[in-house]
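Supplementary Note 3. Input sequence used for the single-chain structure prediction.
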Amino acid sequence: MESYLNIVPIPDNFEQPTLNDCWNKIGVMGDRTCGELKTVIHCRNCKVYSAAGRSLLERNAPPEYLTEWTDILSEASTTQAGAGEGTLVRATDTLSVIIFRLGNERLALPVNILQEVTPPYPIHTVPHRRNSVFLGLINIRGETLLCISLRDLLGLEAIAEPADFMKTINPQRMIVAGKNENKWVFPVDEVHGTYRFHLNEFKDAPVVISKASEAYTKGVVTWQGKKINFLDSEQLFYTLSHKVF
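The predicted structure, written as discrete structure tokens, is reproduced below.
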């Protein structure tokens, strides 16, 4: 489903700040002659780059732009994508999910537990503590996280994919999910993105994956003509915290 808000175009008279985009000239996206690169390594670590980003966020919006968005948000409703004309759906009656693929199955988790999607990181096994679900430890920007096989936890069968098929999809990704300190990492075959659905689009879950995964399927929703199994994140993370080890 598309976003529940209509996009308000930015007016032509919207004031664009003047930026010192030195990163495009002498930085990592330019000729790399900037003397600061020896210290900061990458432009994103430079105070000039950070100041430019803040200036974009802090610039004043034109009055008509704010007025249009105020009207939209005050209504707290929208026309549901695919619904009949005039059908109104409140924003509070929708749910955002991240959809990803494991083998032949496409699954979804609520966006509110999503921390980030990353490229694959090396998995460091733990002596005498590895099993089919717990794969090991991963270091992501200095933070050590537990890596698990969601495929094995759900009892999904691995599939062999032809090389030409692999070239047509995104490379393998890792999803970091959880809340507070209870975060987990799990590899997936493909990430489709985040989507918003109306609550009445979620149907009761039949046994569509396997007996092992039945307890973790909270509902089923249709996306691009495919059945997506919406996972029960609370049950999933409870199992990981209390039963995996």
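The first strand starts at residue 77 and ends at 79. The chain has six helices and twelve strands.
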